[in-house]
């Protein structure tokens, strides 16, 4: 094996080693198509390559995306295609140049960043490389790079079914094809090759099990790493056998340029038009720092829709939160910044920009196999109605109530003391974390968005720098004698002069006492009234006094009606949600 191939990232180096050991050389790293289970890798890989070439259009200008060892690129060039290849892997570029010559048409670049001869390519070819590229990024690149009647050919693995078994890294075929259609591509060819390709996983498992010690010795991987690889392949094997994974050849043809174009808003450059749309829709600015606080560094995701002039006309976003569903950890997204430009609001149908942004976001982010198990939003009934009509929302997870209480100027409680909590200090962070851990231990089967120390710092510490109009006041309640932290309170003075209690973090039995302390603090801050938002099932835990005014403010937390995920009955009720869980308080 060449030194360059040995430098391939794990586990590609392992696959190359196994293929070379069996056949004496390695030309490809892709799956094979088996007719008999005992066929050697070289034979089944060649069959797969021949099958792919039989379904390519005639020689044309083709971009080979993810060129691997360069075998397909070389064959394209020999067959008369005007072919170039791209890969972000330096070791692969080195191998290809060693095989095809230093002047070989290979670029070290990601598809998302490739801009050579944009609009002139006639074919984008993905030979088991599509699965490594975000689906929306793939179609955005295709829209940008392909000529008017260009094509995409993909031979790859796909997820065919999503269930509760965990995150799926493969593209979910129904959503992938829906995105293709939204980008103006029609399915010319769709061939299910699962039965022929799945034995590749069996072959890899047999080879790994038989030669694990040699792989460990020659490639330097430790036993734990190889054990994890074996476990992953056994899981792949199970997913193929029960129909959750499949292997397909797709040929997609661009049939039209669309009126509206989808895309991810994933960096500060793309955030600029989003912030402009935000100012138009909501009437006030979102700073670049505030966008970064919400969405930067993978904390959130935004899906945008652009019109023919290149102007952003719709946006659906969400912030990632750690969550506990019935005590089980997962990720949730908190819906934010659902916006449609005034001129585009007339198209409120399943073909309109609002639907395109929302549906694509939910497909990309929510449900079984997706990054987020559950989504949380706080629309009022009017905002709830249209997504429900379009099938995006189904049912209600909980209702949000607003509780108002008169502030109280009562004296301090002898067993407790209240002090401001500076979340910038490590000791304060430790106190906040201790309060969350105590709260978490008593939550049982409640559904809750995590309020640990790091989240409190991000939400109420760092956010203060970017949203000076929201002066958050964070306090800790401690035992007077021992100094033990009992709970964290977050308040802010609202524009109407009332004081809002945004968050309570502490053991559930202590919540009524924390609420009393919040009323005292509200009085000290000069407010005559304290109020807070809370999921309606929380209220009995707070043991509200008789004078509390509880108002149904018509804010509904919607259930997911669009993608496969936990049933509404599994999620509804027993939610711990407050105003601090929104992005607008």
Q: What is the general shape? A: elongated
Count the strands? Answer: 21
Alpha-carbon distance between the two ends: 59 Å
Largest sheet: 7 strands, mixed
Structural class: alpha/beta
Task: Characterize the quaternary organization of these chains.
Answer: single chain
Average pLDDT confidence is 91
Strand order of the main beta sheet, please? 3-2-1-4-5-7-6
Strand content: 25-35%
Structure description:
The chain has 585 residues and is α/β, with parallel strands linked by helices. The protein contains 19 helices and 21 strands. It has helices spanning 3-6, 12-23, 41-54, 71-78, 90-100, 135-145, 173-182, 194-197, 199-219, 223-241, 268-282, 288-295, 353-365, 381-389, 426-441, 453-466, 511-524, 539-542, 568-571; strands at residues 61-65, 82-87, 106-108, 121-127, 146-159, 185-192, 245-254, 261-265, 300-306, 312-325, 328-340, 374-376, 393-406, 416-420, 447-449, 473-479, 485-493, 499-506, 529-535, 549-560, 575-576. The chain has a seven-stranded mixed beta sheet with strand order 3-2-1-4-5-7-6, with helices on both faces. The mean pLDDT is 91.
């Amino acid at each position: 094996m060449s030194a360059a191939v040995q430098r391939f990232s794990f586990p590609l180096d392992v696959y190359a080693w196994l293929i070379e050991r069996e056949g004496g050389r390695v030309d490809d790293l892709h799956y094979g198509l088996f007719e008999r289970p005992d066929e050697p890798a070289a034979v089944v890989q060649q069959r797969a390559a021949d099958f792919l070439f039989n379904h390519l259009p005639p020689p044309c200008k083709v971009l080979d995306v993810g060129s691997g060892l360069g075998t397909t690129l070389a064959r394209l060039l020999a067959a008369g295609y005007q072919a170039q290849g791209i890969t972000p892997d330096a070791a692969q570029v080195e191998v290809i140049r060693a095989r095809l010559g230093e002047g070989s048409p290979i670029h070290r670049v990601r598809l998302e960043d490739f801009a050579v001869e944009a609009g002139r390519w006639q074919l984008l070819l993905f030979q088991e490389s599509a699965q490594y590229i975000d689906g929306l990024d793939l179609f955005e690149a295709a829209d940008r790079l392909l000529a008017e009647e260009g094509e995409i050919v993909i031979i790859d693995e796909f997820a065919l079914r999503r269930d509760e078994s965990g995150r799926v890294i493969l593209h979910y075929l129904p959503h992938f094809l829906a995105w293709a259609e939204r980008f103006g591509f029609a399915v010319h060819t769709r061939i299910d090759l699962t039965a022929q390709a799945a034995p590749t996983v069996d072959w890899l498992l047999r080879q790994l099990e038989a030669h694990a010690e040699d792989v460990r010795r020659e490639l330097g991987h430790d036993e734990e790493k190889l054990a994890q690889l074996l476990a992953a392949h056994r899981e792949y094997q199970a997913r193929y056998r029960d129909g959750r994974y499949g292997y397909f050849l797709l040929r997609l043809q661009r049939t039209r340029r669309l009126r509206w174009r989808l895309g991810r808003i994933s960096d500060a450059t793309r955030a600029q038009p989003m912030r402009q749309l935000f100012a138009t829709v909501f009437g006030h600015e979102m700073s670049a720092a505030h966008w970064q606080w919400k969405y930067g560094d993978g904390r959130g995701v935004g899906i945008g829709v652009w019109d023919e002039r290149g102007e952003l006309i719709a946006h659906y976003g969400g912030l990632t939160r750690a969550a506990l569903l019935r005590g089980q950890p997962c990720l949730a997204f908190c819906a934010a910044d659902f916006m449609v430009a005034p001129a585009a609001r007339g198209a409120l149908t399943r073909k309109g920009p609002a639907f395109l942004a929302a549906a694509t976001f939910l497909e990309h982010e929510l449900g079984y196999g997706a990054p987020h198990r559950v989504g949380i939003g706080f629309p009022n009934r009017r905002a709830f109605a249209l997504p429900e009509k379009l099938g995006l929302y189904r049912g209600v997870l909980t209702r949000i109530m607003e509780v108002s209480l008169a502030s109280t100027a009562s004296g301090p409680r002898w067993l407790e003391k209240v002090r401001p909590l500076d979340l910038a200090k490590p000791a304060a962070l430790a106190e906040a974390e201790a309060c969350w851990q105590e709260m978490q231990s008593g939550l049982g089967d409640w559904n809750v968005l995590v309020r640990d120390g790091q989240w409190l710092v991000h939400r109420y510490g760092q956010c203060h720098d970017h949203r000076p109009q929201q002066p958050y006041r964070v306090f800790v309640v401690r035992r007077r004698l021992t100094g033990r932290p009992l709970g964290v309170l977050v308040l802010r003075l609202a524009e109407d002069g009332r004081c809002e209690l945004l968050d309570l973090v502490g053991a559930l039995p202590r919540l009524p006492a924390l609420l009393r302390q919040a009323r005292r603090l509200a009085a000290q801050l000069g407010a005559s009234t304290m109020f807070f938002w809370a999921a309606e099932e929380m209220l009995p835990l707070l043991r509200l006094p008789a004078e509390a005014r509880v108002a149904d403010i018509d804010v509904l937390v919607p259930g997911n009606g669009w993608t496969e995920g936990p049933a509404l009955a599994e999620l509804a009720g027993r939610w711990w949600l407050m105003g601090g869980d929104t992005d607008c308080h």
